[in-house]
Amino acid sequence: QLQVVESGGGLVQPGGSLRLSCTASGFTFSRYNMKWYRQAPGKERELLIGISTNGGSTVYKDSVKGRFTVSKDKAENTAYLQMNSLKPDDTAVYYCYARRMFGSVEVWGQGTPVTVSS
């Protein structure tokens, strides 16, 4: 069964940092592009950042440029989202998404909540 599980969310003060993890199972991690999304209360899900099979990263959301980075550990089948200088507007449920490099196979995680508040 294809699965990705996020972890690492929680409560953090403005200006703080968090690292989210996305651990994959049931598929060959190296053949999938990984992306991070978030959805704030009452808003649509938005694409933030992604990392390709060759390790290249792309930031899609201007407001996280320079603050969020993505990485992955192939040996651990895990992708990471490092979030720095967090703001209250970053409060959302964060989702991991995997899509096979060739083909249409995709999988979503269940999300991990992040709250930025003093």
List keywords for this structure.
53% strand, 7-stranded mixed sheet, 118 residues, 11 strands, 4-stranded antiparallel sheet
Low-confidence stretches: none
Number of helices: 0
How many extended strands? 11
Mean pLDDT: 96
Mind sketching the topology for me?
Blueprint: E1 3-7, E2 10-12, E3 18-25, E4 32-39, E5 46-51, E6 57-59, E7 68-73, E8 78-83, E9 92-100, E10 106-108, E11 112-116
Parallel strand pairs: 2-11
Antiparallel strand pairs: 1-3, 3-8, 4-5, 4-9, 5-6, 7-8, 9-10, 9-11
Task: Write up what this structure looks like.
- The protein has 118 residues and is mainly β.
- The protein has no helices and 11 strands.
- The strands form 2 sheets. Strands 2, 4, 5, 6, 9, 10 and 11 form a 7-stranded mixed β-sheet that branches. The protein has a 4-stranded antiparallel β-sheet with strand order 1-3-8-7, with no helix packed on it.
- It is globular.
- The model has no long low-confidence stretch (mean pLDDT 96).
